[in-house]
UniProtKB/TrEMBL annotation, chain A:
SUPFAM superfamilies: MetI-like. It comes from the Bacteria. Belongs to the binding-protein-dependent transport system permease family. Keywords: Cell membrane, Membrane, Transmembrane, Transmembrane helix, Transport. It is a multi-pass membrane protein. This is ABC transmembrane type-1 domain-containing protein. One of its GO terms (biological process) is transmembrane transport. It comes from Paenibacillus agaridevorans.
From TrEMBL, chain B:
GO terms for cellular component: plasma membrane. Keywords: Cell membrane, Membrane, Transmembrane, Transmembrane helix, Transport. Gene3D superfamilies: MetI-like. This is ABC transporter permease. GO terms for biological process: transmembrane transport. It is found in: Cell membrane. Belongs to the binding-protein-dependent transport system permease family.
Length: 298, 295
């Protein structure tokens, strides 16, 4: 009986084998590699012979004068992104929903989700030009008689440049998700509302928004897991020495300590700190998504 | 349905159209502007005369981009990684999604495997242990370093397995009665039935590999092994025309500046994506809905 069942299921195991092996090599082995954050790791000595130092590396990080500022930058930038990534797409979807012309609707959708597909290398190239002091944006600002702004070199502006340009890249994609939820709303609800004398605004408030509520709750809970993800690709391509103060985030700090200063153990310790906090956040967010939006990843 | 177009409704519509046109312009015009810069001469660009149409039209910036031997070497490496990476990603997505889409009764260890996959989403080793792992596997500087570490796209597997679960079970059962095994069912029933999902995943994978730049920067020791995105990353964020001393190109040199060449590099980097974009958008609304809205 057991043998027969095993034969029936054998092909499942064979199919999964390559995926299991690759995940083991490139996801699980690095998890074991975390031990170097408790060592004074030298590549020549390897994992086994490097000296154990306990929590010294963590002590070192938490004592760094930059640490609290970088942590604040990360949380601030990420949180602002999360908020705008919720509001802007929802509003855009509601506005698009009021459009009758299918052609116009489709054209707007096509244009607004284009930036989503471009990498931060490309988008940084564009932003570095249009936001420079001689760029087209400052030309317009000056034409309006205002002082030009160094968006990428001024600590007051840089975090907001990151937050808004990231929303610019992402909002078209999220808008589609909300629009998809809107198509699921039963049209008879609107007809009934019209008969009851509800105007468009009342319809939006009492039918459209409640109809979107499940997906909004889902997106809110899932985004909680991103509180420490301020966007490495974006910051790495846009930041420079003058804006380290306002734009340096955990991920860029991990990169610089590890791969520019070659302090492998310190960098790994900082990475572990981030992974652990993120693990808690993502677990909580999945838990909440399951509880409130009945969402399961598998 | 009878609707009365009131004055307030008309003015709302007007504002609404204006906002949406503005949003579209914000996403589209920067690209047009960069294209115009790349096709204009240095003098016009520096003078700030170029908006959305090239002034003193010239291909000089593109000639400069093409004069860099590294550009074509990197393009070759990128083509390699896109083909290899997409084939491997797709094969593994199919092979993992099929067994994981089964019910527990048909595959007892399913939940063990599911956890094995989910844990990798929840927790990771971080940058340095990941880098050291690839180094210790002796993959640095080889094309496999760009392809194998991301060989198992867990999110795509989830996407596809949810699609598989919605296929009618009766087909599966009758195929089994006719004597088909798991491999046959996957190849002859599941794959043909899920072409829209597979098209979405393929296009996303191709775009992902094309755009991926950080792994190349990190895992290739010498710049002549960089894929195109990594090469573009270095030249776009640190433009340097001083290396450009070929006397035969003096004519070109007078027409270009850091800004025009960067614009050209940016445009070359996004061109393939603009070309596949019509296909992308045809499938991908479907693809997103597939992943985000479940019963």
């Amino acid at each position: 009986m057991f043998k027969q069942k095993w034969r029936q299921e054998r092909s499942n195991h064979i199919m999964l084998l390559p995926g299991v092996v690759f995940l083991f090599l490139f996801s699980y082995v690095p998890m074991f590699g975390i031990i170097i954050s408790f060592q004074k790791y030298y590549p020549t000595k390897g994992f086994l012979d490097s000296e154990w130092v306990g929590l010294e590396n963590f002590q070192y990080i938490f004592d760094l004068p930059d640490f609290s500022r970088v942590l604040w930058n990360t949380v601030f930038i990420a949180t602002m992104k999360i908020i705008l990534h919720l509001i802007v797409p929802i509003v855009t979807a509601l506005l698009l929903n009021e459009i009758r012309s299918a052609l116009f609707k489709r054209s707007v959708q096509t244009l607004i989700y284009l930036p989503y597909f471009l990498s931060w290398v490309i988008l940084a190239g564009i932003l570095m030009d249009i936001l420079s002091l001689k760029g087209i944006v400052n030309q317009m600002i000056e034409a309006l008689g205002m002082q030009s702004v160094f968006f990428l070199g001024d600590n007051n502006w840089f975090p907001w440049t990151l937050i808004i340009s990231d929303t610019w890249k992402q909002f078209g994609f999220d808008t589609i998700i909300y629009l998809a939820a809107l198509t699921g709303i039963n049209p008879t609800l609107y007809e009934a509302a019209v008969i009851d004398g509800a105007n468009r605004w009342k319809q939006t408030l009492h039918i459209t928004l409640p109809g979107m509520a499940p997906i909004i709750v889902l997106m809110m809970t899932l985004s909680l897991g991103n509180v420490l993800n301020a966007g490495f690709d974006q910051v790495f391509n846009l930041y420079s020495a003058p804006v380290l103060e306002s734009g340096d985030i955990l991920d860029t700090m991990i990169y610089r300590i590890g791969l520019q200063d070659y302090q492998f153990s310190v960098s790994a310790a900082l990475g572990l700190f981030k992974s652990l906090v993120s693990f808690v956040l993502v677990s909580v967010s999945y838990g909440l998504a399951y509880r409130f939006a009945n969402y399961r990843i598998f | 349905m009878i609707t009365r177009t009131s004055w307030s409704r008309r003015s709302f519509n007007l504002v609404n159209y204006a906002i949406l046109i503005l949003l579209s312009a914000l996403c589209f015009l920067p690209i047009v502007h960069v294209l115009a810069l790349s096709l204009s001469s240095k003098i016009q660009v520096t003078a700030g005369n170029v908006l959305f149409w090239p002034r003193e039209f010239t291909w000089a910036s593109y000639e400069y981009v093409a004069s860099q031997g590294q550009f074509f070497r990197s393009m070759g490496i990128t083509l390699q990684r896109v083909v290899l990476g997409t084939v491997i990603n797709l094969a593994l997505t199919l092979l993992c999604a099929y067994p994981l889409s089964k019910e527990r009764g048909d595959f007892r260890l399913r939940s063990v495997y599911v956890w094995y996959f989910v844990i990798t989403i929840l927790f990771g080793g971080g940058l340095i242990p990941w880098y050291l792992t690839i180094k210790n596997l002796d993959l640095l500087n080889s094309i496999w370093a760009l392809v194998l570490p991301g060989a198992v796209p867990v999110f795509n597997i989830i996407l596809l397995l949810n699609f598989f679960r919605r296929l009618p079970k009766e087909m599966n059962e009758s195929a089994r009665i006719d004597g088909a095994g798991d491999w046959r069912i996957l190849l002859s029933i599941y794959i043909p039935l899920s072409t829209p999902a597979l098209a979405t995943i393929t296009l996303f994978t191709v775009v992902g590999h094309w755009n991926s730049w950080f792994d190349g920067l990190l895992l290739m020791n010498s710049p002549d092994r960089y894929p195109l995105s990594s090469y573009l990353q270095t030249v776009i964020t640190m433009p340097d025309l001083s290396k450009f001393t070929d006397p035969e190109m003096a004519r070109v040199y007078n027409l270009i500046s850091d800004r025009t060449t960067r614009a050209a590099q940016v445009f070359v980097g996004m061109l393939p994506i603009l070309l596949v974009y019509p296909f992308l958008q045809r499938y991908f609304i479907h693809g997103i809905v597939l992943g985000s809205v479940k019963e």
